[in-house]
Amino acid sequence: MNKLYFIAIFLAASFITVCQSKEGSKMDSKLVTSQSFGTLSDGRAVTLFTLHNKSNATVKVCTLGADLVSIKVPDRDGNLGDVLLGHDDAQGYANDNSYLGFIVGRYGNRIAKGKFVLDGKEYQLDINDGVNHLHGGKDGFHRKIWTATVNADSPYASVTFRYVSPDGEEGYPGTVTLDVTYSWNDNNQLTLKYSGTTDAPTILNPTSHGYFNLSGNPDSTILNQLLMINADHFTPIGLGLITTGEIQSVEGTPFDFTTPKKIGEKINDDNEQLQLGKGYDHNWVLDGYDKSVRLAATVFDPPSGRYMEVLTDQPGLQFYSGNFLNGTLRGKGGKAYQYRTALCLEAQHFPDSPNKPNFPSVTLRPGEKYSQTTIYQFSTK
Ligand code: GLA
User: What is the pTM of this model?
Assistant: First the structure.
């Protein structure tokens, strides 16, 4: 009798323990909440995920283009502000031609005339930027619905998006499977981890195209914000913003951001590279590339105190100063995004690498793994 009594107590206790741990994992999954982000005019449904952390800061991402939709972080007085340009719903993103927040690929940035040769065979990619190929083509990764998995075992909010790009898509060879994981920890650190494979030789160079304005106010320009880029060199461009293949020192040029400098300080200088880019729209050659994650850039907005550090294991960083924003693109709350009201810092391989043998290779072969880690760390000063 006594024995049975103890067995009953033991079973009851175990049951309570199981219930508690179930409840625990349920609470953990509350780190990520999801909702409909609307349905596109072609009928595709899009889901929006919100990543929460202990400081009440949030990141939103969605399944269309694995897009980074919003980042709400505090200013020095603790007021949350959205530091990303974007749209209110999925259809806004479907109509967007400025790549606000998208994962772009297969090749982020430009490939001259959309041509490259791999293992002796020439490939022709979609032409969608004058005579060149940009950001993976007209129907690149940014136009696709990615599958999403919430990483319930992660100690902080984390979602993985996957897209399988079929052989021949936008002219690229090989079937490519790409995973991009967004993780948002309690220190307001957003980590993007990319992992890709292919079933035939190809090229792969995806990047994240977030438009940042640390002021939280998209009506103010980024020209008084302070930028540092950890790079002694950049890759000059010619017509159509195609890299020339040279690697030039930034010393004594408007491209020297080795110490924090106001973005607007030299942006209107009489400089051929700035004219060709219509401002800054260039790739910097990050110092000390060794495939480890290193500090690539910092941005500081003095009035709000918001400070962002960008770390990456990539060899290059495209700094784009929002030169094509001209008030025609309407975003969140119907706001017209004006000239230079945001900046992009795109961690990547150098533009047109497949045609520049002196640039680090972007070739991916079966059995190899593409990987990238890029971190956006937010704080205040
Ligand atoms: C990239 C390019 C820019 C521009 C934007 C999108 O950053 O380098 O030239 O095309 O994307 O408008």
Answer: 0.92
